[in-house]
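call fold target=Flavohemoprotein
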Amino acid sequence: MLSQQTIDTIKSTVPVLEVHGQSITSVFYNNLFKDHPELLNIFNHANQRQGRQSAALAGAVYAAAAHIDHLEDIIPAVKQIGQKHRALQIKPEHYPIVGQYLLGAIKEVLGDAATPEILEAWKEAYGVIANAFISVEAEMYREAEAAPGGWSGFRPFVVERRVKESEVITSFYLKPQDGGPIASYLPGQYITVRVQPEGQPYTQIRHYSLSTAPGGSSYRISVRREDAAPGKPAGVVSNYLHEHAQEGTVLEISAPAGTFTLDQTQDIPVVLISGGVGLTPMVSMLETLLKEQPARKVTYVHAAINGSHHAMKEHIADLEGAHPQMSSYLCYETPLEGDSCHKTGYIDAAWLQQIVDPNADFYFCGPVPFMRTVYSALKELGIPAERIHYEFFGPAGQLD
């Protein structure tokens, strides 16, 4: 339990964190990796370069400070982050290191404003928050290992086959090298792939959503090749998979994780909205709904640049033809000659109002600008927050 004085001191720093939070977390990561480069084997380097990881950590620190007197309010966020930590194999021994460098960054950025009283309060508060993470994650580790077909750490899987889904997306079917069973998962969850491409000094770890319904003897991930663009380097892992992960290639995988999952306790209609490779968790949810809740109406809306970038088009069309409770719609940003779609340009509230049931549960995923557009459209249509569900690929961010 934190003392009232500690709580009051932490809450007094909330305005400062709102202004300086990302500066603090940027300094934190720089100093941490300078002194502990071995931790670069765990963190996503691309998110570090783009500032997404420091922004996400700043948001988490701010939320912890703002809710320090009611930490139970941030347990959902703790569980979401904890799932990623378990997938990455973050362990209890990492937390004291993080605490040391976080306090150091607060002192470095705030200077004399970081009084001994403030630093001591944050040290005490960090201990309580870290223990909450460690406790939640310990249970997640136990569950992942004890589940039928489950395992701990990273397990070698073999690429059984690969299927080109579009000009930029390829699916990889993965079976365990030991021939044993695999853990089931909830539609919407992801697995974590660890590779060490030639010439890279550290291992590279990425989360990839499982793109088919659970229940099979293999996992499927569908990966977009991230090419270099102005201000954005090429994706190290996605390009490695596209160029080097052939049939027979062995990849290290940690057990399925994630909190962005389909609520199958409901019987109201469902609307699934995806942009680009954001279709991966949506297809898993779609296949599950059609198989396990055939009386539940489902609408699938997908946005892509054009037909050449549209993955699994025939598969979705086949599902729609075989299931009268399903309807699907396409939006192409800039259609090619011969492309057929229901809308050109971008998804907007006016179009959604014509094609979806406003009383449905809404799930969406895709690039951040796409997600902001969809979120804004759903709010414009008056969809209540409890029926809006989404996930970021990578560190969490803000849509409003």
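return ok
Residues 184 and 280 are 17 Å apart (CA to CA). Residues 270-391 form a domain with the Rossmann fold fold (CATH 3.40.50.80).
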